[in-house]
Each structure stands twice: as C-alpha cells, then as structure tokens.
C-alpha cells in the first residue's frame, strides 16, 4: 500500500520539493514531481537547476527522450509513468494514479484554498484505509524527512 505523507504549513512548495527530491536522490530513489500546470512545471524545472546550490539534481520533463533513465521527472502531465517510487504532488487535485507509487508526498502551504483542497485529499486517502503521516513545517529549523 502507498505510504502517504503530508507536509503542512509550507512556505514554498517548490523549494521543499527541491529539498525532498535531493534527499530522495541521495537514497537512490526516483521522483516524479507533479505540478499544477505547465507554468509551475517550467518554474520547478528552472529551480532544480539552482537548488541545491552545491549540487545538481538530474531532471527532465516526462516526454524527454531521457525520462526513462533520469531520476527526477517534473511535469504537470506525466504521460507514460517511468517508475513507481516517489510521487511529489504539488497540485491541488489528487493524482488518479497515486496508488501505483510506493510513496506519495503531499505538500500543503498556508494558503486557505490550498489547505481546503489538501483536506479533501486527506479525507479521500484516510477513508480508503491509507496510513497518513503528517509533518508540520511551521516549526523553524525542522528538516524534511
């Protein structure tokens, strides 16, 4: 069954997604960063070129010829899924294919609309028997796990 984590009270979804992607890569995991739309995917792509500042996260878009062998995929439409390890959802909708992944991370900001959409997703997962872990990121100095 998919392990589900909610990271709440996040100031910057994309920044946390970069950090979590780097951590996953260190652990040898492949990541799909699912964005809300094309603009968010392009923004995330650009951010991954800069963060982490001391390293590089190999990444590409889902339809790139190298997607099959690239550890981090960033897109709003994943097309043909190339792995099933870690799904980072930056969108407001529940990914229809989430249960295919070993782990799903939902990142939630302090924005009220984002929180309401996240509550709906939380209830959906909970009502279907998924165990959900929550990580309150409002505490300063708390690291992503």
What does this structure look like?
The chain is globular and about 40 Å long. The mean pLDDT is 93. The protein has 145 residues and is an alpha/beta fold. The chain is built from three helices and seven strands, in the order βαβαββββαβ. The chain has a seven-stranded parallel β-sheet with strand order 3-4-2-5-6-1-7, with helices on both faces. 30% of the residues lie in helices and 23% in strands. The chain has a single domain (3-136), classed as 3-Layer(aba) Sandwich (Rossmann fold).
Quote the beta fraction.
15-25%
Query: What's the SSE pattern?
Result: EHEHEEEEHE
Structural class: alpha/beta
Q: Which bin fits the share of residues in helices? A: 25-40%
Task: Please give the count of helices.
Answer: 3
Question: In CATH, what is the homologous superfamily?
Answer: DNA polymerase III subunit chi
* Measured distance between first and last alpha carbons: 19 Å
Q: Averaged pLDDT, please?
A: 93
Supply the key terms.
single chain, about 140 residues, alpha/beta, Rossmann fold, 3 helices
Task: Describe the secondary-structure layout.
Layout: E1 3-10, H1 13-26, E2 31-34, H2 38-50, E3 59-60, E4 72-75, E5 86-89, E6 103-109, H3 112-127, E7 132-136
Parallel strand pairs: 1-6, 1-7, 2-4, 2-5, 3-4, 5-6
Concise structural overview:
The protein is built from three helices and seven strands. It has 145 residues and is an alpha/beta fold.
